[in-house]
Amino acid sequence: MSAQERPPALPSRAAPDAAEWDAGNGYEAVAPHWFYCKVTGGRERWLPFSTQDSERLEEAHGKDKGDVVVPTSGGRYDVHLKQRQRVAVFWEEEVSEVRRCTWFYKGDKDNKYVPYSESFSEELEEAYMIAVTLDEWKKKLESPSREVIILHNPKLMVHYHPAATSDDWGSTPTEQGRPRTVKRGVENIAAEIPNGEPLQIDHLVFVVHGIGPACDIRFRSIVQCVNDFRSVSLSMLQAHFRKAQEQQQIGRVEFLPVNWHSSLHSTGVDVDLERITLPSISRLRHFINDTILDAFFYNSSTYCQTILDTVASEMNRLYLLFLQRNPDFKGGVSIAGHSLGSLILFDLLTNQKAAPEDEHSREGTEVTSSSRGAEEVKEILKKLDLSEYCPVFEKEKIDGEALFLCAERNLEEMGIPLGPRMKLLHYISSRREVQDTKEQSAAGQHSTTASRDGPYPDVSLGQVSANYPQLLYKPAIFFAFGSPIGMFLTVRGVKRINPDYSLPTCKGFFNIFHPFDPVAYRIEPMIVPDLEFEPMLLPHHKGRKRMHLELKEGLTRMSVDLKNNLLGSLRVAWQSFTRAPLAAVEGVSSEGEAEAEASTEKQPDPKPEEAPAPAKEDPSLIIVGKLNGGNRIDYVLQEKPIESFNEYLFALQGHLCYWESEDTVLLVLKEIYQTIGVTLDQPLPGSQ
What is the pTM of this model? Predict the structure, then answer.
């Protein structure tokens, strides 16, 4: 029986005992579930789609209208049904195989269930239907790999490996080897099926990685780490924004990774480095060349330009692609950077040009400006004798502003040949230089004097000389994880940041770090250098301070109190010992007391009593300039109990912990949703 001829799938139920099955029970068609194959480290793992995605795939499969493309995983992957392929939309990734699964067998290595091929699953299902209908069991089937499957009863179905020698002589496979369990239906294999993601996207966040291709202690890529960050955000939304979700006020936040490392190392620099690298300790040297040197590349004007162009063009590309796939998106955009990635974003943001008109006036003139921009592109192409490529630019809707944001990679993807591509890039770079020269001359000597001699040097002082690309959007908030921004500003000669300074196009800035992170530095002391105060302690996502920190603070307070009480008692005792005896005459008595008091003052105390600690100001009320709208900037995570035993042992982990940190994710969500007036179900203690 073919898949189309089968009766519609009924709600699945657990298989009853074999004794309860007879011909009178009838046959129920199995409910299929869709899986995809993930290959990691040479090992295949079959993972289920979420219930929502599987239902959409099954619905599209039932229509059978040729090659249908179904978006899955929140729109980040497309499934091409005809080819049975799962393709990443926003980043480069190997294509995954997709299956419509009904029958499974237990694998050899990790005891995970593996789905049979769709064609063989149909054979198994047909044999199972006949066995149930006629009550005839002990059915034997031979798989395409000449392995035997025996259906003993509805509860016991076994897959046998044939002996290795049987195939050599061409004999029929027998039930030799270790038997493997066979299961029918996804409900019988205890698969962890994801719940799926809300369709509504409230906010978009681009995440830029730091040095090297690996982003965490398990050497995973930025895509995998951001996937973890997104998963944690979904669980935090369910735990802390349940009311808003139930009232359908919010959906979710989408996080998209931005990869610049591969573009930098595809420039041929690795070959140049290989020629000059010593042969000894090769693994360590390769690690340094591939990871640590990224920080040095960023301080080179040549490679800094490559990194900046890659990050900006990739974020612009992802933004346009996201809008194309989500035309109803009305939310804001934020950016986040880890380690060196946060410094790249900070430099980009400090060099953004704030538009003089507001958003409303820009929306009103959008059609006019776009038509003018199209005419401008035509004039530029005509000037460069490239008019034949006008249809290409019209098709991609490239106006004058978008043209000057194009990098070589974008022009190559549009199909522009090398010669015309070089002409356009030369024209764009020359126009940028002219524009920068005009802006610098218009600024005059006033800005130069202020940046060198004033009390607050420009934050762009000491930046690498480069043409800083412009973003197509205004970020709402900038999140920095484990960031060395403070250190780089200090090295560049920026000792103080003007309290009135704010990023030109971004209103929010949060510097989040682990207390043991060796790469992280604070920002607030550069704005308010005369006031000593601690960074804001991020509240635990379960609503309290970690127990070992509370215990540590309690013991500290107790020891100070005991110390002060003990010193006070010793002082009283010392005064009583050194005090002169009372005299009979009152006048003599007063003189003796005066002498005793004087001698007491001359005698040194065993140890002076500690001065009472000055009253601390509420940390959330401290104003630290306009960089974050007057709100606090530095936020420190609470270390875990095991991390408090040895700071040095967990230093590296402290720099790579942010991807799975619930406290970090919750702060990001809290600040993002505050921009649209949505708050936590219950405010966390100590939060701003």
Answer: 0.73
